[in-house]
Amino acid sequence: MLLLKEARVTISKELLDELLKGCKRPEDLLGDAGLLKDLKGYCQVVGGRL
How many Cα atoms within 13 Å fall on the side-chain side of residue 46? Predict the structure, then answer.
């Protein structure tokens, strides 16, 4: 049996604007070295999933 725990994180508009400031192309956000991949890794570490 697989149990999934859902976590929700709230990011302020100001922080989101600052994070997206460096994104000029879709790859900067969604690519292999993009912001979303970095944030996912951060959330896994903070959430104690590693």
Answer: 9
Instruction: Answer yes or no: is pLDDT of 46 > 70.
Output: no
Amino acid type, 40: K
Its pTM stands at 0.52
Does pLDDT of 14 surpass 90? yes
C-alpha span between 47 and 41 (Å, rounded):
10
Phi and psi at 10, nearest 5°, equal: -105, 125
C-alpha dist (Å) from residue 8 to 15, 23, 30, 33, 43: 16, 23, 20, 23, 10
Amino acid symbol at 1: M
